[in-house]
Amino acid sequence: xxxxxxxxxxxxxxxxxxxxxxxxxxxxxxxxxxxxxxxxxxxxxxxxxxxxxxxxxxxxxxxxxxxxxxxxxxxxxxxxxxxxxxxxxxxxxxxxxxxxxxxxxxxxxxxxxxxxxxxxxxxxxxxxxxxxxxxxxxxxxxxxxxxxxxxxxxxxxxxxxxxxxxxxxxxxxxxxxxxxxxxxxxxxxxxxxxxxxxxxxxxxxxxxxxxxxxxxxxxxxxxxxxxxxxxxxxxxxxxxxxxxxxxxxxxxxxxxxxxxxxxxxxxxxxxxxxxxxxxxxxxxxxxxxxxxxxxxxxxxxxxxxxxxxxxxxxxxxxxxxxxxxxxxxxxxxxxxxxxxxxxxxxxxxxxxxxxxxxxxxxxxxxxxxxxxxxxxxxxxxxxxxxxxxxxxxxxxxxxxx
Length: 401
Description:
By secondary structure, the chain is of the alpha+beta class.
């Protein structure tokens, strides 16, 4: 796969962001295009090397890879890592040119400007500034990952395979998402299940010869929506209440055939303190109750995604470090929470790589602009983010390893 010729070397963070927006990195699962982030990762690799930064490809699958960019190591100093994903959501309904960055009214427009090529550009620019300092307080790097918008393959690969193989372990990871530069220290996780019912196909002129999978699914959906969802009571002070919803349904092949199959997708938001596996067991209990009440009903389920919540209790050193850096920058350091998920919870858990790594979420831009038809980020937020990330990387780490 060839890399498009880069534009002239970016001279500012805004120019770097514009170059990044110019790559079509719509998530491969959403677009059907394999290794969608690879051309941008290759270009960032080349750009970073041209600035004397170190780069390392961390294979994921196919030809995809996470890109780790670091400044020259200073022995004995702690490591801090910034992380941003390279993929974006679809562009079908956009009202602007998605891959031709435009700047007007103090804003940069384009797919990914806010979520999260803007944060990623600010992170890399801050690392460039830091690398010029001969006696840095910390070692620092930026990790660019693939496939955050669908299955988090990049973050999972880093936590489970790449991290244990590195000769160093980060003291903390700051994940870039649009938070208006407010530290998000807690967020919800998600359990996504695909539920199937199976009936017997027959001609609609004699329905008695068949069994409708759609009718079966109505019983399943009713049980989930009338019994399970209203009983949810878990909540967290920073992220709100646990939520659950049925969001897609597919069934039948044509109007004159009794449907043999029906499928729904269920999205359950898990608050900090909840266990995703326990949540699945609760839903399984509901399905079992439906089976008992409806002899002959065939219902199965499979896991689409089980992603943990981000619990602030494991990240106190990083939270304190980032809050100190924000105060020094003259910004509010009030911690917040979010109902959505990010890569941060994967790093904070890292069960296969030993104890979790302190992680939080911080980035320029407003989440209200993410995934929109005219996605944008303000230049003021972008420029401030370079300073904030630089302050985080440059502030001495005051915690024992």
